[in-house]
Every structure is written in structure tokens, then in C-alpha cells.
Amino acid sequence: MAARRAVALVALLALAAAAPARASNDEGDALYALRQRLKDPNGVLQSWDPTLVNPCTWFHVTCNQASRVERLDLGNSNISGSLGPELGRLVNLKYLELYRNNFDGEIPKELGKLKNLISLDLYANKLTGSIPKSLSKLSSLRFMRLNNNKLTGSIPRELAKLSNLKVIDLSNNDLCGTIPVDGPFSTFPLRSANTALLFSFENNSRLNGPELQGLVAYDSGC
Amino acid sequence: MAIKQNRSPLRVLADLSLFFCILLAPVCSATPATAPATLLQVKSGLTDPEGVLSGWSPETDVCSWHGITCLPSEVGIVTGLNLSGYGLSGVIPPAIGELISIESIDLSSNSLTGAIPAELGMLENLRTLLLFSNSLTGTVPPELGLLKNLEVLRIGDNRLHGEIPPHLGNCTELETLGLAYCELNGTIPAELGNLRRLQRLALDNNTLTGGIPDQLTGCASLRVLSVSDNMLQGNLPSFIGSFSNLQSLNLANNQFSGGIPAEFGNLSSLTYLSLLGNRLTGAIPEELNRLGQLQILDLSMNNISGKLSISTAQLKNLKYLVLSGNILDGEIPEDLCAGDSSSLENLFLSGNNLGGGIEALLNCSALQSIDVSNNSFTGAIPPSIDRLSGLINLGLHNNSFTGVLPPQIGNLSNLEILSLFHNGLTGEIPPEIGRLQKLKLLFLYENQMSGTIPDELTNCTSLEEVDFFGNHFHGHIPERIGNLKNLAVLQLRQNDLSGPIPESLGECRSLQALALADNRLTGTLPESFGQLAELSVVTLYNNSFEGPLPESLFQLKNLTVVNFSHNRFSGSLIPLLGSSSLTVLALTNNSFSGVIPAAVARSRSMVRLQLGGNRLAGAIPAELGNLTHLNMLDLSFNNLSGDIPAELSNCVQLTHLKLDGNNLTGSVPSWLGELRSLGELDLSSNTLTGGIPADLGNCSGLLKLSLSDNHLSGSIPPEIGRLTSLNVLNLNKNSLTGAIPPALRQCNKLYELRLSENALEGPIPPELGQLSELQVILDLSRNRLSGEIPASLGDLVKLERLNLSSNRLDGEIPSSLRQLTSLHLLNLSDNLLSGEVPAGLSSSFPAASFTGNDDLCGDPLPQCSPSSTRRLPRTEVAVIVSGIAVVSAAVCVALMYTMLRVWSNWRAVSVSSSDGEESAHGGRDNKWGAAGAGDGKYWKVGSPVSSTAAEEKHSSGSETSVLHGKLTEASGAAKS
Question: Which of A4, A5, A7, A9 best probes binding to B when mutated, by most B CB atoms within 10 angstroms?
Fold first, then answer.
């Protein structure tokens, strides 16, 4: 019996070894790793077959001409679970549309690796923790909608480096400190003049108005 | 008889029955005279396939019957019945209870069914009862508790259910109690603690619950205690540590919790200890190191923490140490194998949090198997690993080992499994590996190894599986790869290998899976490929293979998965169609030509058929309709002609149907509405005619629907509004008429909506403002739309591009469009709009966004003034027109010169013009108007977005950053 168990273990070793050999390419692996941590009651991830060459035929995944993942559209899909570091491997991603689900946990700092990201739509989820500083490396980012989550902490000053940022919505969170005034944030005071709701920080009870340089420490109230 | 009906578990009643039985002895007992008759009755209930009972006849002496033992001194006193392993079936008749003199019954290892007769309880002389390994059902009769002389009771491996009767605690002579492998439930009866003589208790593989009762402390004679694979819980009782004769303790696969009692260290006779698969916590007690007789220690799959505190200094007999799947941390202790006395042959530490190096293992000189995978081990593979000369299996995978694979590995001449995958190993494969004549599995995948694959590897003729996936190996596949006659799996995907597939590969007759994808391999496939008769999975995608496929491939009858995508193969597909077991045939982006052979449809299990981007011509074969399991059918970008065959309506499991980029004619079939699994339907760029069938509205799971660039006519059916999952709707470039159905508002997941270049008329339905996820584009340009721009379009806050140009829209531009905060491309040109450009828009978009609207004025267009609406006399008009003509001619020349310059610069800078909306097959998709630089004029000005637009067009490089800097600067200036 004991010997049999040992043999079984060796067989297990062999099996464990063989399984990843059939793995898909890195982006497919990354997405599949994401899927593994998610609950998907509506089965919207059903077509995510890790044995395929690439994830380009998976539903809700759109690839560019070079078969690299460019869009991830899982908005409004009743998905729960946490986002993981694996999302940082989708380096060609332009649109990350995960809004209106039940995602929880923190925003992975690895999202900062998505240099091509144009739109980061994580609004209306249950995300917690702080906004990672690494998001300041998203040099292509135009739209950052993190509103209606449970985010805490201060708005990282580094986000002021996002010179392309056009829409930032951080409303309805539990952020604290002050709103930066540099870079794209400098348009903030224009908000009332122009009806366009470019930057929204509403309903963060511990968030103070725009930082007046030298007057308020940016993390006051945190 | 009273006993016959008595199924009550009450011991009192059972005892009473016995009392009556003794009283009525002449009736109950089988006298010598009745034994043969009873046995014949037993025989009559049995089916005897081997005829072992054929000699049982009244004419012969019962004691001569096969399987019967009698008392030697007296005539006809039957004491033993042994019919083990004769394939007997049928039931054990209750009459067996009349064999009163019998001492031993062995009916084990047959196929007996029915219940264990309660009458066995009357056999007061019975010492051995073996009924194990049958198909007996019912419960364990409590009457067995009457058998006061019973020493061995083994009735396991049956389908017995119910609880273990506590009455068995009365069988005080019991030495062996075997009830394993049944369906018994309930708890272990405390009464078993009365069995002072019990040496072996086996209750494994039932569904027993509760704990190990304290009363079991009375079973002090136990040598074997085995209760594995139940649902027992609670703490491990420390009294087990007092069973001084215990040799084997198996508590595996239960739900025991708490720590391992230190008292187990007192079990000086113990040779086997398995606590595998429980919920044990705490550290490994140091006391276990005192178990001098222990040969096998398995504590795997628990939550045991702390250090690996095992030393074989005293565990001199330990051969197996299995601690996998715990949360042990720290390093392998130096004294794990102190001295030369270690017997340790198998060490399994997989799946812990162990770290540090593995040098300490080099003292374990008897080791045959090492599995330290799935930990955090670091450092190099020690070159002196060859001290472990008996090593057969070495699993170091999923760790952080670095450095090279030492050449000394070649001295491990017994090595069969070498699994090093997913580490940080670098350097080359040492040629010495060729000395490993017994090596079967070589897994080096997901490391950083480089160099060439040494020719010497082909000396490892026992190799069955080779996986080098995801390294940096370059050079050729070894010429003599054909030496590996036992090779079943060859996985070389994702390396930098070049050159052709060696002709000798055809000698690897055992090959089942060949993965050479994602390399730089070239040349044609060798003719010998056709000899790989076992080949099932072959993936060659993303290489530069070329030429026609050898006809010999047709001999590969076992092919199931073929992926040759993204190569330059040409010629006919027929060589790949010898198999009728294909599930995946993916040949996308090659140069295959000819027709799609009907033989494709012989593989009825086909799930994915991807032939896109080839030069296939002719009609789509109707036989494809036989592929009822098909999920994906991609025939896009070929030269296919004819109608879409109606037979495809049988492919009801289709999720992707891509027939775009062909010359298909006829109509869009209405049966598409029956393909309820469809998620993507792309029929664009064909010459389809007729209307859009309303039935498409039934494809409720559809995510992408593209019918663009056809000759479709009629109106857009409102049923399209039922496609509530739709993300992308593209009906561009058709001849669609009528109004845009307001029902489209129900497609509220749309992020891309293109209806341009049709003949749509009527107003823009205000309901489109409800498509709140519209993001990529709303393109209604080049139609005949009239009326005002609905103010509701201002609600599309995610919209990035809006094109309503070249319609007949009138009225003022609604000021609500200023709310389109995400918008960075706006084209309202060439309409009949009037009034002043709203302030928020005028500052953001260039004149080109608004031109061609005669009555539109204000920044960025010319100033609004009363004169702007004044009618001019004809002559003035003529003068102005000719003046404009002259000026524009001059401007045109200048512009063309400038454009030429810009264009040539463009060519220098541009790497890719992709902004990612093209299909994988290349830029045939018409995007937003004229592609390329022309779009730029509608981009939002004076905002960082325009620089991003530039960035999107140019892919990268220093020019981009310069441009980027300039534009950002400009935008800053505009603001200040």
C-alpha cells in the first residue's frame, strides 16, 4: 500500500510536469490565471479555453493584428473575485473594461505595466485598498474611471504625470487627502465653468478640495 | 426460528436468541447426518462457473468434497468450508447456520450477493469468517456478536452499509477485524475497546464519522490500526502512543485536526505512519525522530508548519519521507541525513514554503527519488549531485534555482525523470546528458537556458517525453533526433530554433505529440513525417515553413489536433485529411490553395476549423454541415464564392462564424437565427444581397455582428434590438434604407456602432443616447439622415469618436455635446447644420469638424454675423466662385506638395498604422472614413489627446516622443 502510494506520487510528479507543457501563450495564460480566481455565474468566460494558441477567439477578448490582446470587455457581467498581477502581462492592452461587476480586493500594482492602456474602467465594483502609484506609469492613459468602489488612501501625487489623462472619475470612494493640482489635474478648477464633467472626486467624505500648494499637506485627513 | 426475524440491534435480544438456540439445540444444530444436506442447500444457491462444486453429491463422502475440511478423528464432522476465489455468485443461504460444528468459513474473493445471513451468529464454534471481496449488501448482522470464539472476521470490500454493530465488542477473542472498503457510516463503536486481543483493525474507505473513541485505548494489543479514507474528525488521540506493539498506523484522508501527539514518538515498533490528507496543524514533533523502526512517514497534505525537523540519525530505517503539501518553511536541515547510516530512498517535499539550497540532500546517499518541487528553493543545482548515484527521479521544478545544469548530471546513470521546469536556470544543456541511458522524462521548460540542443541528447534512447518550451535554445533540431525511438512527446515551442525539421524525425515512430510552434524553423516538411503513425497532436504555428505538404502525411490516421497557422505552406489541404479524428484543424494565414475538400467533414468530432487567410477558392462544401460539434468556422479572407450553404444550419454549436473577405453571393441566411450559441458573426466584405433577416435577433448571445461591405438592402430590422449582449455592430457600406430603428437602444452593451455609407434616412433616434457604453465609435456618416442631432447624444459620456458627417442633419448643434468628455474625434461636416458652434466644442475641435454646413458659424468657423445669412446677387456669386476656384487651385498645388512631403516623412516614421480595429487577417476592414493621416483633422485640438492620436499612429521611437513633447507643450500653451 505504502509503495503504491509512493509510486502514485511519482506519477503525480510526472503528471504535474506534463500539464503546463500544453500551456497557451503568455497572454492566454495570464487571462486564464485571472479566470481561475473569478466567479462567473453567468458563464461569460466559458469560451476561455486555455489550450488554444492564443486568446484571440475567446469572447470578450479582442486582439490586434499581431494577435496580442488589446481589449478586455467584461463590463456588466456579474463577475466576482479579485484582480491579480497577471493582468500586468497584457502589455498591449488598450482597453480594460471591467466596470459594473463585483470585483473585490485591491487594484494590482502590476497594472502600471500596461504602457498602451488608454482606458481603465474599473468603476462600480467593490475594489478596496489604495490607488497604486504605479498607475502613474500608464503614459497612454486617457480615461481612468475608478468611481463607485471602496478605495481608500490618498490620490497618488504621481498621477499628475499622466499628461494624456482626459477623464478621471474617483467619485464615490473613501479616498482621503487632497486632490493634486499639477499636470492634468490643473484643469480641475475649470470643471464648474465647463459643464463637462472631466474630473470627478465627489462623495469621498475624507477627501479635501484641490491641494493649494504649501497650504495643505496632501495626505491630510488620511 | 426467532432469530431469523431478529434484526434488532439490541444485544439483549440477541443474547436471548442464543439462549433459545441452546435450548433448542437439536433443532438448531447440524448433526453429522445433516451436514451434507445443508451443504447441498448452500450449493444450490450458488452459480459455480469453474465447476468446483461438481463433486459435491450425496453419493460421496462429504469430507472428500472440494473445499471441505473435517475433523480427522470423527466421520462427517465438517469443520472447514473454503471456497475462496472461485468466481462463485449467488447468495449465501441462511441454512449455512446449520453447520454447527464448523470452525472456519472462507468464501472470500467471489461475486456473492445478497445479505450476510444473521444465522451465521449460531455457529458458536466459528473462529474464522472470511467473506471479504464480494458484492454483499445489507448491514453487518449484529448476531455476529454472538460468536464468542471468533478470532478473525474479515468481511470488508463489499457493499455493506449501515453502522458497525457495537455487538462486535462481545467477540472478545477477535484478533483481526476487517471492515474496510464498504459503505459503512456512523461512528466507531466504543465497544470495540473491549477487544483486548485485537491485533488488526481495518476500517478504511468507509464514511465513518466522529472521532476515535477513547475506549479504544483498551485495544492495547493492536499491531495494525488503519482507518484511512473516512470522515473521522477531532484530535488525534495521544493514547495511540501507548500501543507498544503498533507497527502500522494509517489515519490518512480523514478530517483530523490539531497537532500530531508527541506520544506517537513512543511507538517503538512502528514501521508505517501515514497521517496524509488531514487538517493537522502545528509543527512536526521532534519525538517522531525516535521511531527507529519507521520505514515510511507520510504527513503530506496537511497544514503542518514550522521547520523540517526530521533527522535520520535515529530514523535509521526511514525509506520514505513524504511531507508534500504543507506549509513547512525554513531550509532542509543539515542533519537530515547525518552520517552514512541514512536509508532514505524517497524524499517528497513538494508544495511547501521551503527555501535555501539543496546541498544537505547530498548526504542522503541512498536517495532514489527527490521531489522538492513547488517551493522557494534557490541557488544552483550542486555539481556534486552525482554523489547520489542511485537517483532515479529528480524533481526540482517550480522553484527559483539558478545557474547551469552541471555536467555531472551525466553521472546519474540511473536517472529516469529529470524535471527542472519553471526555474531560473541558464546556460546550455551539457553534452554529458547523453550518458543518461535510462532517462525517460526531461522537462526543462520555462527556464532561461540557451545554446544549441546537443547532438548527444539523441543518445538518451529511453527518452519518452522532452519538453524545452519557453527557453532560448537556438540552432537546429539535432539531425539524429530519429534515434529517440521511444519518444512520445517532443515539445520545443517558443525557442529560437532555426533550420528544417530533420528527415530522421520520421524514425520517432512512438511520437504522439509534436510541438515546434513559435520558433524560426524553415523548409518543407520531410517526406518521412508520414511515418509518424502514432502522431495525434502537431503544432507548428508561427514558423516559416513553406511549400506543399508531403502527400505521405495522408497516412497519419490518428491526427486529432493540427495547427500549422502562420507559416507559408502552400498547395492542397488533402494531405492533412487522412485522419477522421480531427478535432482542431487550424491553418490560418498560409498560402493553401485549391478548394476546401469535402473530406474535411469526415472528422465528425471537429470543433475548430480555421482556414482563414489562405487562397482557397470554390464553394463552401455543403458537407461542412455534418460537423455538428463545430464551435469555430473561420473561412475568412480566401477567394470562396457561391452561396452560404444551408447545410451549415446543422452546425448548431457554432460560436464563431467568420466568412468575411470572400466573394460569397446570395443572401444572409435567415437560419443563422437558429445558431443560438453564436457569439461572433462576420460576413463582411462579400457580395451578399437581399435584406438583413429579422431572425438574427434570435442569436441572443451575439457579441459581434459585422455585415459591412456587402450589397445588403432593405431596412435594419428592429429585431436587432433583441441582441442585448452585442458589443459591436457594423453594417457599414451597404445599401440599407429606411430609418435607424429606435429599438437599437436595447443593445446597451454596444461599444462600437457603425452604420455609415448606407442610404439610411429619417432622424437619428434620440434613443441612441441610451447606449451608455458606446465608446470606440458611433459612426452614422454618409447616409441621408435628416432632422436635428438629438440632444441625448450628449449622454454618451464614454464615446471617443462621433461621426455624423455627410448627412442632411439640420438645426443647431445641441450644446449637450459638450458633455462628451471622452470625445476626441468629432465630425459633423457636410450637413445642413446652422447656428453657432457651441462654446465647449468650438474650443476643442478644429474647423474641419464642422465645415460643409453652410449656415454654421462661430469659432472655429468664421464669425457669426447678420450678413452671413444674407443672400448674394448672382454676379457677386460668380465673381466669388471664380476667385475661390483660382485661389483653391493654387492652394491645392501647395497642399499636394506639402502632403507629399508629409507622406514621405510619414513613411519614415510609421511602423504600423494599426489602431487595433483590423481583424487578424490584415487591414481590409474599412475604419473610420479614410484611414491614416486624414483622420487627424477631426481630432480634438489643443488637448493632450491629439498627441495621443499621433502616438497611436506612430508606434514608438524617438520621433514620437519629440512630437509628443511638442504637442503637450502646445496644449499647455493653449491653456495658459
Answer: A9
